[in-house]
Amino acid sequence: MAVIFSSLPWKAIGRGVAVAYGISFVSGLLLLANGITPQTDQALYPLLAILSGAVGIAVALRVIGTTAISHMLFLGVGLWLFNLSSVLLGAQTLTGWLDSSAFIVTTMIAGRLLVGNSLAPLPDSAGTPR
Q: What's the predicted TM-score (pTM) here?
């Protein structure tokens, strides 16, 4: 287990968390500037939030350079823990933060689907991944 933790590119995962959170934050500000809030658009807002979060995750996965499950797991946990700052600032309740794990899992899956196979290793002429 210690080998897995030591072999992870922690700087890249940290950059990925920052990129994904930044894209989601800026898109939230843009939605607010256009008058799209959870109170006014109860159907459109969650869809746009998941889409913008998925784009953030897809860009973060490109920054990390892999779609390995361990990397995605730590990216999601990093985002979830980073969202704890909203609880500390009083913008969200603790139960709301715990419930946000379902949203983060959804955006992680959608972001992985947006990346597709573009980060998969290409096989060489013998058919083995490079």
A: 0.80
In a domain, 50, yes or no: yes
For residues 47 and 85, give the distance between their C-alpha atoms in angstroms, rounded to a whole number: 23
Q: Provide the residue range defining the domain that includes 37.
A: 8-115
**In-domain check, residue 128:** no
Mean pLDDT computed over 101-105? 89
CB hemisphere CA count around 35 (13 angstroms)? 1
Structure tokens at 76: 């999601």
How many residues are listed for the chain in this entry?
Answer: 130
**Rounded Cα gap, residues 104 and 32, in angstroms:** 20
Residue 130 contacts residue 121 (beta carbons within 8 Å)? yes
Place of tokens 């590119």: 9
What is the SS3 assignment for 58-103?
Answer: HHHHHHHCCCCHHHHHHHHHHHHHHCHHHHHCCCCCHHHHHHHHHH
Q: How many Cβ atoms are within 10 Å of 130's Cβ, its own excluded? A: 6
Name the CA radius of gyration of the chain, rounded.
16
pLDDT at residue 63, rounded to an integer: 87
